[in-house]
Design a protein that fits this description.
Layout lengths: L1 E4 L2 E5 L2 E5 L2 E4 L4 E4 L7 H10 L9 E4 L4 H4 L2 H7 L4 E5 L3 H4 L6 H9 L5 H16 L7 E3 L4 E2 L5 E5 L8 E5 L4 E5 L2 E4 L2 E4 L8 H11 L6 E4 L3 E3 L3 H10 L3
Parallel strand pairs: 5-6, 6-7, 7-8, 12-15
Antiparallel strand pairs: 1-4, 2-3, 4-5, 9-10, 10-11, 11-12, 13-14, 15-16
Helix pairs in contact: 5-6, 7-8
C-alpha cells in the first residue's frame, strides 16, 4: 500500500489556497479521498499524472463529508469515469445525493439575518454557490469501524463535530490518519479545524479523544497537509480544551 498527498491549489476572493486530497493505492485498486471544488477535475488529473498515477485506474472515491470543497468535483469525475464507486458515511450520504439540504447551506442561511448589511451580498453569493453543487449517488455506505482490505488495509473512523457524518480514514500499516476536516495544521501545529465551520465544537473534542486512542504517527489534513509531530499529545490537548 502506498499513498500520495496532492497539493491542489485554488483561488478564492483573490487569495490562493491549497487543499490536500489523498490517493491511496496498491497494484489492484486506487482510492481518492475527497476531490475538491467543482472545477478541480483537470487539476486532479494533472497532479496525479505528476505523481506517476493515472485517473483511469481510479476505483473508488471516499468523501469525508459533504462540504463543497470536498465533494464539488465528484459529479464531474463520475461522468468521466463512471466505473468509480463513491463511498461516504451513512449519515452524510443523503446530503451528497441531494435527498437532504446541505448542512453548510442551512448554517449559511441561519446566520444571514444577523450579518452586517455590507456582508449580505457575499453571503447570498455563497449560498447560491452551495446550491449549485451537483449531487451524486453514493454506492457504498460507510460506518464507524468498517475495514477494507484494498490498498493494504484502511479503517473508517467516525469523527463527528465538523459535521455529524464526518469520517476519517486510518491506515494501520503506516499509522497514518487522513483526517479530512476533523483536524487542521495551522502554523505547524495540529489543531481542531476552524470552529466557525464546526457544527458541533464539543463533538470535535470527543472525536479528538477518540483518535488519541489510535497509534498515529502522521496525520494528513485537508487544510494544512502532513503533520508528523507528537500527534497523541496534540489530540489530548484538543480533547481537554475549554469551550
Amino acid at each position: 500500500m502506498s499513498y500520495k498527498i496532492l497539493d491542489l491549489k485554488f483561488d478564492q476572493n483573490g487569495v490562493r489556497f491549497t487543499i490536500n486530497p489523498v490517493v491511496i493505492y496498491d497494484d489492484q485498486e486506487m482510492v481518492l479521498v475527497d476531490c475538491g471544488h467543482p472545477d478541480a477535475l483537470p487539476k486532479l488529473e494533472g497532479l496525479m499524472k505528476d505523481e506517476g498515477l493515472d485517473m483511469e485506474d481510479l476505483t473508488k472515491i471516499i468523501i469525508t463529508h459533504h462540504d463543497h470543497d470536498h465533494m464539488g468535483a465528484l459529479a464531474s469525475i463520475i461522468r468521466k469515469y463512471p466505473n468509480v464507486k463513491v463511498m461516504a458515511s451513512t449519515i452524510d450520504a443523503p446530503y451528497i445525493e441531494g435527498k437532504e439540504k446541505s448542512l453548510r447551506l442551512v448554517q449559511a442561511e441561519s446566520i444571514y439575518d444577523s450579518l452586517p448589511e455590507d456582508q449580505k451580498e457575499s453571503a447570498k453569493r455563497f449560498a447560491a454557490y452551495l446550491e449549485s453543487i451537483e449531487h451524486t449517488k453514493v454506492d457504498i455506505l460507510l460506518n464507524d469501524g468498517d475495514r477494507f482490505d484494498c490498498c493494504g488495509e484502511f479503517e473508517i473512523i467516525a469523527t463527528p463535530g465538523h459535521m455529524p457524518g464526518h469520517i476519517s480514514i486510518y491506515l494501520p500499516e503506516s499509522k497514518t490518519l487522513i483526517s479530512g476536516d476533523a483536524l487542521v495544521v495551522q502554523k505547524g501545529e495540529l489543531e481542531i479545524a476552524n470552529p466557525q465551520y464546526s457544527l458541533d465544537i464539543e463533538g470535535t473534542r470527543v472525536s479528538a479523544l477518540k483518535l488519541s486512542k489510535l497509534e498515529i504517527d502522521r496525520v494528513v489534513c485537508y487544510h494544512g497537509g502532513l503533520y508528523t509531530g507528537d500527534v497523541h499529545s496534540a489530540l489530548i490537548k484538543m480533547a481537554n480544551a475549554e469551550n
